[in-house]
Structure formats: C-alpha cells, structure tokens
Design a protein that fits this description.
Length: 225
C-alpha cells in the first residue's frame, strides 16, 4: 500500500507495450492524443496512421511503442484501472471502519470521473468515456485466454480482488463476494452508459447516481440476517 501511494507513475504490465510510452515525450503524446482521437472517431475507425497525422509523427514511430492498436487499447484500459486502484487505496487507507471503507471504495469505483492533474498527458475524463464505450473490445477477442495467461488483465483483476476483500471484511459469510465485486466494477460502466444513452431503462439520472445504486445493492446483498 505504501509503495502504491508514494509512486505517482501508473504501472502497466510491460508485455503490453514494446517501449514504455511514459518514458519519453513522444510516448506521452501518443497516449494523450490516442485518447482524444479514439473519443473523437471511435476505436473501430482509429488507426496509427491517423494518430501519426494528429501528432505530426511517422506511423512507424508509433509502432515502436505498440505493435497494434489492440495493444494500445489494452494499455489504456490497464492504465485506467491502475489509476482507479490508486484512487481507491489513497482514499481508503486511513479509514478504520470496515463499513465506511467499503462505502468509500464503491464510491471511487462507480463515481463520475474527475481529471487528475498529477498526470498531464492523460485526460481521465475522456479516458473514462473510452472505458465505458470501448473497453470490452480489449478482452472480447479470440485471444483473450492467451492474453489473460500472459497477464494483460492483471490490474483489472487486481482491482476486483481488492474490492472483494473489502466486501468479505464486512461479511465473511457472504458466499458471492467475487461475483458482487466484479458486478460493481463492470456494472458501473454499464449504468453510466445507460444514464447517458438509454435513460428509459435505468434509475440513474441527475439525482440518483450509479454510486447510490451500487452502495445500496452491495450493502443490502451482504447484510447479515
């Protein structure tokens, strides 16, 4: 925990990239403008050629960092979940009450994203929109099992396990803490999507947030009889 709180560099599994984009100005520009461009045109229409034109660099220079746009998307999703975990740990590490700690953790995972000035090359608000709209494309592939074995999704699973531990601390006898934890993490994205696009099939709106829903869901589910 201390290491995570003291290290402001968000770490992503090294086998996702060829060269760490956080190690150079060009790499940071690739990350910064890939987020903006994917948000603008969508991941399906996004190409390294278009990104190169946007940042004034050769397409080949981007391939020195990522071997494919799929790997870039996996990187962006991994960076996002590592950042969320950083926020969660920072916000809860001094809370001793297990119920309050879980309530705060659910808030961090499900709340509307705010920009973090500690990372100038990443617009977290725009990145959150990409995670909501595009992140499933990072793992809904034929290679998901192989990539999972290689640790591509380690950070995402690490966040789920961290929240699961907090749920179990509140009620060790609850048998579905992993399923509930992954439902919160993934379901929050879905509820934000519904709130923005399919308002008629969600209770979340300007007055009722996904955080309200998931805090209610979790604490009612794990309530001791």
């Amino acid at each position: 925990m201390i290491n995570l709180l003291s290290n402001l560099k968000i770490s992503v599994p090294e086998n996702i990239f060829l060269k760490d984009p956080q190690s150079s100005n060009l790499g940071k520009r690739i990350i910064e403008h890939s987020i903006l461009l994917i948000d603008e045109i969508g991941f399906d229409a996004f190409t390294f050629k278009k990104l190169g034109a946007r940042i004034g660099s050769n397409e080949s220079s981007i391939y020195r960092y990522f071997e494919s746009k799929h790997k870039l998307l996996v990187y962006l999703t991994s960076w996002y979940w590592a950042w969320v975990e950083y926020q969660l740990v920072f916000a809860t590490h001094s809370i001793s009450d297990i119920n309050e700690k879980l309530e705060r953790a659910i808030e961090i995972v499900t709340r509307e994203t705010k920009e973090d000035t500690a990372f100038s090359h990443v617009n977290e608000i725009v990145l959150n929109k990409i995670i909501i709209n595009e992140s499933s494309k990072s793992y809904m592939t034929k290679d998901v099992d192989t990539e999972n074995q290689e640790g591509y999704f380690r950070i995402y699973k690490q966040l789920v396990l961290r929240l699961k531990e907090m749920i179990s601390n509140v009620n060790p006898e609850y048998n579905y803490s992993l399923s509930l934890s992954s439902t919160v993490v993934e379901g929050a994205l879905h509820q934000h999507f519904l709130k923005d696009h399919f308002k008629s099939i969600t209770d979340c709106d300007t007055s009722t947030t996904p955080t309200d829903f998931f805090q209610n869901l979790v604490f009612n589910a794990i309530k001791k009889v």
